[in-house]
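If your schedule permits, I should be very grateful for your opinion on a structural question. Please examine both parts with care and let me know of anything in them that strikes you as inconsistent. The record follows directly beneath this note:
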Amino acid sequence: MIPDLRILDGHAKSQGEYQEMHDSLCKAMDRLKVMERLLIALYYYEEMSMVEISRVLDKSELEVAEAHAEALRKLKTPL
């Protein structure tokens, strides 16, 4: 689950629409690999840079950037 849904603020017109967006985002996040979920959390919620994330994950910046792009592709793909 996603503990902090600030990302949805301002995008939902009603509580029902907010809940629907929340549920869809949670389902999409569940499809990600553990490292992809961690990367998304570090980048968007902890506001870390790709360089910082690469150090935390002990990966090259290129690997982190590619994993980020792949995670975003997966999140954009309809369920």
Summary: The chain has a mean pLDDT of 84.
